[in-house]
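Form 7-S
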Amino acid sequence: MTGAMKKNSVPSAPPCLPPDSELIDSHCHLDMDAYGNDLDTLIARARAVGVKRTITIGIDTASSRKAVQLAESYREIHATVGIHPHDAVRAEEKDFTELVRLAERPEVVGYGEIGLDYAKLYSPPEVQRPVFARQLALARELDLPVIIHDRDAHQDTMRLLREAAPYTAGGVMHCFSGDIALARQVLELDMYISIPGIVTFKNAATLQEVVREIPMDRIILETDGPFLAPVPFRGKRNEPAHLIYIAARVAEIKGMELQEVARLATENTCRLFRLPTTGTP
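Output:
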């Protein structure tokens, strides 16, 4: 979760997948106000380009409840629960109790977005770290994969992740923002790396190098909508349908066919979050 956006209009026809192909948006915030008026249309637009499922991410107790409600209402949506580092300063015992209760719902497929953010500092680092560590422990107890937020906090994030390892249910470094050296550390923990729309930006050489160098079997794809819209929507509202542009850029960087990137990224996402291997009809 990051950035800012404006409402978008489609500038051009998107890249095209065959009807039997699928993409999964592994990280989106469908509970946010940016999607309040056109969620049904948004889901239809995503399906039209092959993005058949979306995982909507909890960032506090209220958004986690809403994520579960959305997943109960839409067969295309799965949910996660968690407390984002921005909200760590407000976390109380009752919040952790509520998250554990929500995590028992069958619609919940992961624990997060959790982690550290030293860029915005909405919560002091000394508060963020124990909240992060506690949630890593909760995810282990719940046998859920972890969705990790790491912004300008690479050293502490990796230290806490190593202390809590191994991750038998798996995990992913969401919206990866490090270099290839950090990516290799993440892979050493047997985690996935999630590639956002930033990979389409002209100034994203470091992320593009990461995509080029790491194996495709450790990559999943995300929009982080409504934030970080890819080119040609940069600066506008992001949404699951835009994942096709991210997949196309990854395919270009790796010298692969778009359909093959979609197949592998979908397999990886299904493996991590224990999803059915085929999308909804």
